[in-house]
Fold:
Amino acid sequence: MKQHVLITGTGREMALGFNFVLRYLEHGDHVIATVRKPSEALARLQQKYPDSLTVLTMDIASTESVNAAAEAVAKIAPCIDLIINNAVTTSPDTNKELEDFNLDDVSWVVDVDAVGPLRVIKAFLPLMKKCPDTALIVNISSEAGSIGKCYRSTYIDYGMAKAALNMATMTMRNKFKDDPKLNIICVHPGWMRTNEGNAKAPFDPYDHAETMRLMFEEKRHDKDGPVFVTYAGEQYPW
Ligand SMILES: NC(=O)c1ccc[n+]([C@@H]2O[C@H](COP(=O)([O-])OP(=O)(O)OC[C@H]3O[C@@H](n4cnc5c(N)ncnc54)[C@H](OP(=O)(O)O)[C@@H]3O)[C@@H](O)[C@H]2O)c1
Structure:
């Protein structure tokens, strides 16, 4: 059945969000791809999929922007079957040690990476509840958000933000516990070739988006299984 899928942070062709958009379009779904600024890559895709791709501006750091996007989506889609909270930011100091890290940057990174997905969930909750099946929320996390597996002394902003995103995910799993219409997971996608600096990464984002698309469908109704999972759907340590 055709799904209405909302994906955040989709404007960059090499990145994961854009490749999720591509995979869901190829699968025949209606995709609402959100961006902060216009994307030529998405504009080209819209020419190929004029009826099934909707591109919307939404800054997940702004409650006003997220709420406005939800109002716009309510006018064009009967429901939302899947949200992929993919957008992410990091501070310029992310690879630096504490001594050289501007700590004033941590709060806005946490705001975008952890509070942003919650803004999206809150605004789109009414539309998700209209889904004929169980609506699924996927928060794209990272191994960097695992406290149990933490080995770095850098990534202060990113690690804290993804750990907070994981906590937000578990908190929502608890909230949805008795609601058969809603489910949520967070995913460590693995290292992907999403930019020139990641050339040695093992995963191609286009192939990997399909691996995860299939895994999400396996998880949609699994409300008792692991909440923080790998791209293969296996439990990952908090
Ligand atoms: N790449 C990897 O190997 C890897 C590994 C582990 C986890 N992940 C996770 O996978 C996801 C995708 O990673 P990626 O490397 O493909 O990401 P990316 O290339 O950095 O893309 C993230 C997107 O988020 C958007 N964004 C930033 N701030 C935003 C805001 N306030 N509102 C809305 N959108 C915003 C960016 O938009 P602009 O273009 O406007 O800046 C960008 O297009 C992320 O959640 C990341 O943490 C990636």
The mean pLDDT is 98. Residues 106-129 form the longest helix (24 residues). Residues 8-9, 11-12, 15-17, 36-37, 59-61, 86-89, 112, 140, 142, 189, 191-192, 194, 198, 201 surround NAP (CB under 6 Å). Helices lie at 16-26, 40-48, 63-76, 106-129, 156-175, 205-219.
